Amino acid sequence: MDILLWLIPLALLLGGLGLWAFIWALRSGQYEDLDGAAARILFDDDLKKGG
Amino acid sequence: MQGLGLDEFYRRREGEAGLLKPQDAPTVNFATLARDNGNGTCTLELMVAGLTCGACIWLVEQALAQESDVLRARANLSTRRLSVTWRGEASRADALAALVARLGFRVAPFSPACLSASEDAEGRELTRSLGIASFGAMNVMLVSVAVWAGSDMGEQTRHLMHWLAALIALPTVAIAGMPLFRPAWRGLRAGRLNMDCAVSLGILATCAMSLSETLRNGDFTWFDGATALLALMLAGRVLDRAARRRARQAAAELLALQEGAVTVLGEATPVPMERVPAGARILVASGERLRLDAVLEDAHALLDTSDTTGESLPRAYAAGEALAAGAVNMGAVFTARVTRAAVDGSLAAMGRMLEQAEQARGRVTSLADRAAQIYVPAAHAVALATFLGWWLLAGLPWQVALVPAVAALIITCPCGLAIAVPAVHVVASGALFRRGVLVASPTALERLASADHVVLDKTGTLTEGRPRLSPGTWTEHDLREAAAFAANSRHLLARSLCRACPDVLPAAGVREVPGEGLISGETRLGSARFVGVEDAAGMSLHLLRPSGASIAFRFADVLRPDAAAAIRAFQRSGLGVELLSGDAPDVVARVAEEAGIKLYTPGASPAEKAERIAALQAQGRRVLMVGDGLNDAAALAGAHVSAAPAEGTDLAQAASDFVLMGGGLLPLAEAVDRARLAQRVARQSLVLAFGYNIIAVPVAVAGFATPLIAALVMATSSLAVIGNALRVGRR
């Protein structure tokens, strides 16, 4: 059962990492425009000024 | 711009959402609204109406990015908010806003109303809480499954697992539970038992019992049930909110487009309405809405007062006559002196009256709350009886007696019951939204389902509310010639003429005589007086040829295409239909006959309309009022449930539970049926959830329930309820 000493903190760490990523995404405004974000992946981003 | 592939874009758009035409440059002065960021850059926040797809935001962003000084342009498809940052002077704002308008989108300043509808801190807190609760629930489950499966687990290991679960679950509940605990506490302080109270108490009691089990190292802890319940409840909340946020947003967008500035004599730029003082002299352009109470200074003016009185024919005013806010100028530009500032004016007074009516209606208890009022005390009584029974009668220690009692509590408040009604509402609101009916208030669907009498306004509700060319003695050739003339004017009748013949190009060399007509050489188009013929009948334009022959084009306010079908649909659903209008008796009688309405009242003043509604309600009828004008606002606010077309005045919309986006009445008639279906399904779901409890509660009371059984009951009853709710969205 000694393995638990490693596995439980590891599981919590990974879970916490997911939670932190979620809160970071929420704070940086990635949940503000769910409809627009779905379409944005299709945009070309190499259009230059004046072209 | 064609290099960006625009041709294809517009062709696709025409098919989907109607013609997208370049809009006139907006009249608002955007330069004053731009924010100076301090480092030589400025930012402007705009509300862009008409953004419907990813390609729209691409188009707007790319078009702005092509400008050499624009640093950043970002459009938000959900909130219709566009934020542009550029290097240079604030005065560029107007040009940038005009650029977006040229692409075919209407722009307005991002007003506080839009802001409150889109920037909801509450919504963000819910999403964050949901994230935390899901994290907590999953990690607690990880530990719990180990306990359920590990029957050969040692005492110490189990104790460690219990502490671990407590360590994760208690902070999770404390942080993520706030959006539930707060309304529960508010409800308790107001002396009302709502669903939030039941759920909060269930979660808190489960946590307390599990903590006590952890301390004495019992067989199971129930932290997994508490966190899973919390996460499911929050998920329901988030969905419910998203559905209503869309409706709120669309309503705020409409209002932002209606907000406007007033041209004040002596001021270089238009002044926002609320800052115009009494005594100021204002200029009202042709086709513009008068936004303040004023007296006429010019010799005469022609105003469409259909919104304030319901009269369909424009009325002529002479110098010195009082003009009520809300009328639309149908004639030439005129000057008027403001008698009262916006806050003291008739519109503001009506707004205050609406607020009072709104508060009165807010006291309607919803089905979910009524269910909670019976159910919550019953569930708590069962839990208490279980505890006392095991403790006093069976002689168990109190900690042990607490386990079946709290198990009964958590099993009786599974989310099935709490999300039964919201799930149905989310699905029904979504289905209605796709058909162009916005649900603006939370209890609107329940009230619509119980309506048994519909009262309709005429102008703008049953009819289109704008003049349309009637058939006459003119030929196609006459129409084309007149339309080419009319394309040079912004006058309402001239515009109606152009709508009848949309592909015609403006004729060259045409001069407009404001308020009279258009002239080019010997040919004239305009009022009867302008072309020199005798004619007194209603709204008309006359075309005078050099030969001396004149042709009359007559206009009338016609029924909406789906009005008669909608009336039949209402009658089929068993609703009484009544027409209540401020217009003249002969017009109302004709419209009523065309639409197939037997009961009608002409010449009703705003106060009489409200009285009629009150009288009907006093007879025990539940009235659905549909109206668009300022004269309907009081009646709308007083009715059991109300709806307004999207083109209606802002006050009418503020007073309504439903806003009809497409402008048709038929979707509303269908909405009645859907609301009734939604109510039926919500009742079924409540019965279903009750059914689960009747089976599960005896098990819990007897002490046979384990956390595993509680989790199963919770999951299956939720799935059954959600599956049942999905039926409302079909068809």
Q: Describe it for me?
A:
The complex is a heterodimer of chains A (51) and B (731). Chain A is mostly helical and 51 residues long. Chain A has one domain. Chain A is 63% helix and 0% strand. Chain A has 2 helices and no strands. The N and C termini of chain A lie far apart (66 Å). Chain B is of the alpha+beta class and 731 residues long. Chain B has 5 domains: 2-110, Alpha-Beta Plaits (2-Layer Sandwich), CATH 3.30.70.100; 121-249 and 364-419 and 686-729, no CATH class; 261-353, Distorted Sandwich (Calcium-transporting ATPase, cytoplasmic transduction domain A), CATH 2.70.150; 437-464 and 560-661, Rossmann fold, CATH 3.40.50; 468-556, Calcium-transporting ATPase, cytoplasmic domain N (3-Layer(aba) Sandwich). In chain B, helix 9 (223-258) runs parallel beside helix 25. Residues 14-20 of chain B have low confidence and may be disordered. The interface between A and B is medium-sized, with 26 and 28 residues.
Task: Describe this structure in a few short sentences.
Chain A has about 50 residues and is mostly helical. Chain A is about 65% helix and about 0% strand.
Architecture blueprint of SSEs:
The complex is a heterodimer of chains A (51) and B (731).
Chain A: H1 3-27, H2 34-40
Chain B: H1 6-17, E1 35-36, E2 41-49, H2 54-65, E3 70-76, E4 81-87, H3 92-102, E5 106-109, H4 112-118, H5 121-149, H6 155-176, H7 178-189, H8 195-215, H9 223-258, E6 261-264, E7 271-272, E8 281-284, E9 294-296, E10 300-304, E11 315-318, E12 322-323, E13 328-329, E14 334-338, H10 346-361, H11 367-393, H12 398-412, H13 415-434, E15 437-439, H14 444-450, E16 453-456, H15 458-462, E17 468-469, H16 476-486, H17 492-500, E18 511-513, E19 517-520, E20 523-526, H18 528-531, E21 539-544, E22 550-556, H19 563-572, E23 576-580, H20 585-595, E24 599-601, H21 606-618, E25 623-626, H22 633-638, E26 641-645, H23 650-654, E27 658-660, H24 666-701, H25 707-726
Parallel strand pairs in B: 16-23, 16-25, 23-24, 25-26, 26-27
Antiparallel strand pairs in B: 1-2, 2-4, 2-5, 3-4, 6-7, 6-8, 8-14, 9-12, 9-14, 10-11, 10-13, 15-27, 17-22, 18-19, 19-20, 20-21, 21-22
Helix pairs in contact in B: 4-9, 5-6, 5-9, 6-8, 6-9, 7-8, 8-9, 8-12, 9-13, 9-25, 11-12, 12-24, 13-24, 13-25, 14-24, 16-17, 19-24, 24-25
